């Protein structure tokens, strides 16, 4: 561990009761996420200013919904618990993994109860179309990679997929992402793992853990800028996503 402050930190399975705490932590970690800016149809970058309190709350509700839905599909939510000299142990990082195998998605009514209605009310009715437009080209790139490598099955039914992971800004740089990844690798030592990185920096971090880039997908070209914020003209470059795979 690169910092003595992180000594004693450990990874464990999260409880349902901790979803709100996890989501609040990840909102801080993903405040500048181009993906979530795109999903929310943001007209300006999200900030910590009081004027953006409602927007931050909408982002937190989306993360809560994502976690509840993932857990309903058999997802595995892990958290890093850590303390500092001045504050007691708390959730410092989290990851949600979708295991191999297809489970029937929750019904619309069940999804609404999980928080989908709050997401739609906060981010507009177009949010589901934006999520679909985001997901399909990434899924296609991973499926093509499976075919090229002659791997059995599909990414959905035979890989552990990292749906979301993040570390509280206060704890970044202390090795907690590494702890979350290594715990997953130990849990499923002979598995294929898939994910998509949303920045070149994140892409290069995952490379260090054995992930290979299988493509580059530009999201929102002609609609959003590099931050995922609504734009037009030459500024509407879109932002890159890097589907990645780790084969045992």
UniProtKB/TrEMBL annotation:
PROSITE patterns: GNAT. Pfam families: Acetyltransf_10. Keywords: Acyltransferase, Transferase. Gene3D superfamilies: 3.40.630.30. SUPFAM superfamilies: Acyl-CoA N-acyltransferases (Nat). One of its GO terms (molecular function) is acyltransferase activity, transferring groups other than amino-acyl groups. Residues 153-246 form the N-acetyltransferase domain. The keyword Lipid biosynthesis does not apply. It comes from the Eukaryota. PANTHER family: GNAT FAMILY ACETYLTRANSFERASE, N-ACETYLTRANSFERASE DOMAIN-CONTAINING PROTEIN. This is Acyl-CoA N-acyltransferase. It comes from Mycena venus.
